[in-house]
Design a protein that fits this description.
With 116 residues, this protein is mainly α. Helices cover 66% and strands 0% of the residues. It has a domain of 64 residues.
């Protein structure tokens, strides 16, 4: 019984240490999630647009047809739309397209003997 236990420890411990030192494989990118960035650009655009609405209202605060609420609302809507568009633009730029490779036509091309 004791011999069997020693045998298990003898094989399990090196295997365990081997598993500990191997690098983990990652099927996806390790950076921040892209849709999280998209949400950040959209919300950031909305806040920027609302702030721009306040600035527009400050330019003409005595105009009775322009209220602070309407300029902030319109600025928020426009900023959200522009932030979402900018986020989609950044999302498209982050796409990595794998390089195209052509298959060899014959054995000489496969072996790299095109010069012969």
């Amino acid at each position: 019984m004791k011999k069997l236990t020693l045998w298990k420890i003898k094989w399990i411990l090196p295997f365990f240490f081997l598993l500990m030192i191997t690098a983990s494989l990652q099927a996806q990118e390790t950076g921040p999630l892209m849709m999280k960035q998209e949400l950040g650009y959209t919300l950031g655009g909305g806040v920027f647009g609302a702030g721009l609405g306040v600035v527009v209202w400050f330019m003409d605060p005595l105009n009775p047809s322009v209220t602070l609420k309407s300029t902030v609302k319109n600025g928020f809507i426009a900023g959200t739309a522009l932030g979402a568009l900018f986020g989609f633009y950044m999302l498209q730029n982050a796409i990595i397209v794998p390089s195209e490779s052509t298959l060899p036509e014959n054995l000489d091309q496969l072996l790299g003997k095109d010069d012969l």
